[in-house]
Write a structure and sequence with these properties.
There is one protein chain. The chain is α+β, with helices and mostly antiparallel strands. Among the domains are: about 35 residues; about 30 residues. The chain is about 45% helix and about 15% strand. Strands 1-2-3 form a three-stranded mixed beta sheet. The relative contact order is 0.08.
């Protein structure tokens, strides 16, 4: 549901009641400017955002601790050979001329 700022001032109590079941969009000149949500919805959203951020930071820390090793099957790959150079070798499955 979408409601203007002027209407939201007049019907604040009803708007808050509606926000308990679904988020309510508040508009200004037909442009969305805010969303009113229930406290429970906001709490769950914040918890999800925090969990995702924590997961990402843990993943980055693990990646820094254990860098990926992707040289399986490339016998000539060493520290002086870049990954792009190593993967640009001829394809044994390609049709040869």
């Amino acid at each position: 549901m979408s409601i203007s700022i002027a209407q939201s001032r007049q019907q604040l109590s009803a708007l808050i009641d509606s926000a308990q079941s679904t988020p309510q969009v508040i508009t200004k000149r037909n442009t969305p400017v805010a969303v009113l949500v229930s406290a429970d919805y906001f709490k769950r959203t914040q918890l999800t955002a925090h969990t995702a951020g924590s997961y990402y930071s843990t993943l980055i820390a693990l990646r820094n601790t254990y860098p990926p090793v992707d040289n399986v099957g490339i016998p000539s790959l060493n520290e002086s050979t870049s990954r792009a150079t190593a993967w640009s070798r001829t394809n044994s499955f390609a049709d040869s001329e």
